[in-house]
Write a structure and sequence with these properties.
By secondary structure, the protein is of the alpha/beta class. The chain folds into two domains: 13-138 and 327-351, Rossmann fold; 141-311, Glycogen Phosphorylase B (Rossmann fold). Helix content is 31%, strand content 15%. The chain contains eleven helices and 13 strands. It has helices spanning 19-25, 32-46, 57-67, 78-85, 140-143, 177-187, 223-231, 247-253, 299-311, 324-336, 339-351, and strands at residues 13-16, 50-53, 71-76, 104-107, 122-124, 133-134, 157-161, 190-193, 213-215, 235-238, 258-264, 277-278, 291-295. The strands form two sheets. Strands 7, 8, 9, 10, 11, 12 and 13 form a seven-stranded mixed beta sheet that branches.
Length: 362
Amino acid sequence: MERGDCAQNQTKVVLISSSDYIVPLQGGHVGGGAVWALSTYRALQEMGYTVLFASTVEAASRIYPVFDTLVKMVIANPGQAWGCFSTRCRRSERNPSGIPPWKMFTSYFRQHSNNPLGSKWTLNPEDHGGKNTYLGYSIEGQCSKHAFVPHAQRKRQVYILTRFLKFFLPEVTAWPPRYFDDAANATGISFVMAATDLPDVPRPGPADLSTSIQNLGGDAMQTESFYDLLSHSIALVGIGKPTLSPTAYDALCLGVPFINPITAWDKQDPQNREHWKTQHDALRTLSAPYVYHVFRGDREGFVNAIRAAAANPIQSYVLDRMKMASVKDRLGRILAHDWKTEAAGLLKRRQEGLDKGDVFML
């Protein structure tokens, strides 16, 4: 700054305390939250912002006064934000150098708000159509590291989207084990997955797991091995959970169609997608050959979807909203927004009893 040679946005600071960012950057597990976080971090880097990390929100509150007005945003976990709001971490009359609440945003996968200032300060990875702020993410960076596997070189296998064996419990899974056996017998296709047990939770018994499924074990599956396995598959099939997994987008980018279980629907209007609850609601609007939606309990539909996915291979497909250019556009508009004025209006409504929540100092 003293030399006057800072690049565009370099004097704008984003301070991050969320473990979703820190853990994967330190080589830890890359789950759904981490995929979103790494996408946001890459976007900030490409846009030229200065990114600083703090191991805790308390540490972030000690870093904040050093940069003060240069800090445009603090990204925290919901628990960190609520904790900061209820302690001396935030700006107040007793702590005038604390983090202004209007600069603190929370990363949250679900569609309801989870921030002391409400929905607009709650960042979502998907556009749930509510009042939260849609940031989104891109899987292009990770996908581009893996060569597209020609369909003639792929194995006749379907990858099962699940991390934990508990999702095969009868009351949870969308597909009884015989569905996999029927599909394997009808098509000659095998099923693979990388799932593990969790301590102190119910686990499926032998009768709950199809003998047509080969489990490679989730603990030993490294990221590169996962992408290699997925890219050599002819389809990805969900079993109901986990919901909104980035793996479905990875699959499409690698030319692997997704079979999306419909777990709830309007019995009077079953084809109305707006009333569907699926494993990946963000993909409800896509259709074959990219996404095959199958109603829970529809054995014939399940087998036919496997057969159709094998017979109709796709090329790499990335939704426009999942491209890095779109992420940077949304992130740029979020960072450029006048959040202080927005917060002033919220504060006034709270003071007048028109909005729920504690008052705060701007």
